[in-house]
Known about the structure:
Low-confidence stretches: 676-704
Strand order of the largest sheet: 11-14-15-16-13-12
GO molecular function, one term: nucleic acid binding
Protein name: Mu transposase, C-terminal
CATH topology of one domain: Nucleotidyltransferase, domain 5
Distance between the termini: 146 Å
InterPro entries: RNaseH-like_sf, RNaseH_sf, Transposase-like_Mu_C
CATH architecture of one domain: 2-Layer Sandwich
Number of helices: 24
Organism: Salipiger abyssi
Largest sheet: 6 strands, antiparallel
Number of strands: 16
Amino acid sequence: MVSVREESGYAVECKETGECFTLPLERVETAIRHRDCEVIKPADVERRKALLKHTDGLECVEQLSEKDQRIVQARLALVIAQNELRAEGVKLTQRSMNKSGTHRRLLLTRAEQIAPGHNFLGTRRGGKLASGFDVPQGRTLTNYRDVYHRFDQNPVVLADRDRMKGRREPRLCKWQERFIDYVLNRWHDPKQPKLASVYKLATKVFHRSPQEMAQDINFPSITTIRTRAKAISGVVTVIGRGGARHGTNTKGAGSTDVRALGFGEKFETDQYLLSIFTSGDGVVRAEIIDPKEAPQELADNEIRRCWLHVILDIATREVLGWVMSETADADHSKALLRMATRDKTKEKVRYGCKQDPVPPVRLGLALADNGTATRNADVYAGQLGMGMAVMTARAHQPMDKQTVERLFGTTQWDVLNFRPGYTGSRPGELTGYEPKPSAEISHDDLYGTLTRYFIDEYPFRPHRGTGMYGATPRQKQEEALQLYGPMEPPSQRDRCLHLGAKVQATTTSEGVRAFNIPFNSTELQRFAAGRPKRVTVHLDPDDLRKVHVTAEGEDAVIEARLSMTVFKDQTLEEAIEIMGTATKSNPILRELHDRHLSEAMKRRALESGFFPDSRDPSSYQTLAQLEARASKLLQVETRPAAYIGATAAPGHLMSRGRTSGVVPARPAGTAPFKPPSASTPPRASTSSPRFAGQADGPPETGATSAPDPDDIKAMTFGPIKDSKL
Length: 725
């Protein structure tokens, strides 16, 4: 408030803190010229206070109801008619404007001309008296004119003030008002107690002095306290009984900030547990499964609720990607980013969409919440590697991600609410509907429904969000591309290295295998040089035509192409499904095939003649014979030093007769040689050389004696009947 105007400026005083300081003239004049301030004279302030006191807080006609506004219009027409007649020289008095006065009809006729439709004259139409405005007597008409001019011709003063009738002073004592405040303060608790229970207990513990009891012994009624509770602001009640976080989410002021202009400049991503059960045929089943052996993919007839991952462009409200999964994790968040940066024609063709999907785009600023699906090292590394700026939304602040949060509500009420298996937006909402037994659609059918909604329907609906002004997302996309230019999608190399799947593999002569899918190239063969080397394969699960290979100590990124063309147009999930389906079969049919295979192999084995009859004992003697032959090969032959074999006389080496040979002298102390009898086969020492016709056996014990020469010849050479040559 300006207190004094000086030559150097204005001496002003802050009405809130009482601080006094001086503002330069130039600053004040500039603020007035730019309309950065409001100049209010003290007289205007006093008149405004008087007006608000007269009207009980009303300042303009628009604050009244439609019925009261029409009454004000009729009374204003009567006031204007009085002014015009007085200006024309007609002397209007209270008596002349009465029902029996001379100027009343003249006044009503002029008012009818000013504001037709109020029927001031009360004319008859169709034999009936038409309803019209009930014009009061002249005293009241004069009072309308005086009040209208006293308050600077503000029509709001012509409204009725019936609401100000009655007793104005408080009807309750001070201690009763304090009791009401005490009850309402206890009622505003996060535990959300019942008001009636709080009231009953408060009457037992509320302290009153004897003087207060003498004023009034009764407590205020519960109805009075309920009326006071309803008069409290809804925001205060929500914060007091629901907590600050719930109050911010439900009663927050919202935001009208236009946060992005270019297509792909900023995007929001979030996950939502769909309020619908999906199944194959709607039959509830129970099955005991082993978590270690249970497959990761969804079963055909498995009833469950799935997660929907969505990425939304802020500038155009276009849905850039959508993924449905069993859990909310980093792999599906990366799949969502890959979908936003690639072409989605495959989804259009597969699910029969009529319109073209949103084109791929390079993403700029990423905004996500603190969930585990987005706040992890893998997702952050992929986003930063793709050149995105990462921004994390605050916890329990839905206004930070209001655009994508609104999309989930729209999807639920437009799509899921009409499908079998819908669960409701909260537990216990559907009291007469059982969602699990009603589940009929499969997981792929639900994904197809969402795909058609995000491609054919949602981009062509008028959007009333901030900055959209009723335009459709597709219209806003075309406008953004025209004004700010396109953001080219990332290259396949960047997608593989930063958003793709990584797997450790070893090079072979056929290249390298990732997920059992072969890839090969000339550069890879030159790097391997015919030796197995450990490498890392970067694979785009949405496009198997090309992979990138990195290795420790190798600077260059090696490119390899798919060498099995059957997977050329498949995704990684589809390729794994094809390979898995090839190994799975009907158990009964598989048993029949195994029996056919066993019979064919048995027939081939018998026809080959290689396998003898297993019931023949000779089939088990080969190994024993080989062991006997092996033991012979292991024997080491030596001659004892005390015995030298018989030698032939000179000239009789090849003689076949009984020629006496030279026998060495028998050592002293030895027994004479005894030839073996006919019934006892000759035996030889294991340390002596073996002769033809000599049988195996252990050596004889006792002293060794020199043999007879004739016996030696008989033992050495047997009769030869057939020639050996």
